[in-house]
Records
---
Amino acid sequence: MSHIDALKTRNQNFAASFTQRDLVPLPKLGMIIVACIDARVDPTTIFDLELGEAVIMRNNGGRVTAALIEEITALSFLVGRITGQDAPGFHIMLMQHTKCGAQQFAAPDFQADIKARTGIDVTPSAITYPEQDLLTDIARLRDEPNLHGGLTVSAMLYDVETGLAHEIASTQSLEVLRKKAADL
Ligand SMILES: [Zn+2]
């Protein structure tokens, strides 16, 4: 049996007991979880999420890149249109993990090679010290004027060897983070 056939069978089993036809598109927990695409760090499994509970956005490293900010901005407008609210409130939970392959993007020779072959700058996706990179990503959200100040953000670091996610930054609103930055 091919892997595709195996997934088809799993889906048929899933559909056989499916009872959630009335789910709404907005996440019940009001959360966006940003995580790495690494197959070991699927937030649905790690946080035991149910269908419809959270929006999950994944990219190389789970970093806050320009592309990710565009997605969140567009989503905010989309949710605003659905709900009729100008500034829908969301919590953005950033999650990076130990032993991340995106550490390779920090190597100058690899960065230069990708840039020369494709024109792509992978620097914003590079992982160096995850605890620090998570704080950098919170600052990237804070400094993005298209994101509403009412959005809240937190950060976790997931350990692929223990299965535990450790809190690196507790929940704060972008508005409060902007005030703190302005006071410095
Ligand atoms: Zn990773």
---
Amino acid sequence: MTDTPNTRVAVLVGSLRAGSVNRKLAEILRDEAPAGVTLDIVEGLDQVPFYNEDLDGADAPAAAAALRERVASADRVLAVTPEYNGTMPAVLNNAIDWISRPYGAGAVVGKPFGVIGATPTPYGGKWAHGDAARSAGIAGAIVVEDVIVSQSAVDVDPATDPEVRAKLLAALNTLVEFVPEVSAA
Ligand SMILES: Cc1cc2nc3c(=O)[nH]c(=O)nc-3n(C[C@H](O)[C@H](O)[C@H](O)COP(=O)(O)O)c2cc1C
């Protein structure tokens, strides 16, 4: 019997509210992911304290350690987020800060990273998505530029529209199939 390769994607949802459109999109991708792809929606981001270097180290708070472990054990990282005041919500920014440390060796370092989401404006949260991608890239992730998808929810319900769902699933596939360049050094 041969082992079936499995790609694990850690999913960071940038909205905490129960009725979140973006959480719903993350759940749709989880439920419709192709065979061999597992989406792990990281719960408890609201329990992770604001990043504080005084708290970090061997005794980092349990919620932060759990976040790091979930991301470190994943093959890919996908943020699914709305936009707050022209950037990413603080809960996502905080999660990225925790997985960026220790400097150069954080859980996100070297992980292919994508960011998608929907907001009820014509821009679909593009500033949030751009900022999250830049931040994750500075933290050491490999940002997959084709997996930055900002979906407007003005004239469409992203959770039920077949074209939007297909577009988001295609983005997930692009992230999963992305092959990082191997350094010749
Ligand atoms: C504090 C706050 C700030 C917001 N700022 C923006 C914004 O800058 N751009 C935008 O497109 N939507 C903005 N919104 C609207 C959110 O995109 C909208 O509420 C969205 O549905 C939230 O996503 P969710 O359904 O996943 O919770 C803001 C909402 C809140 C609560």
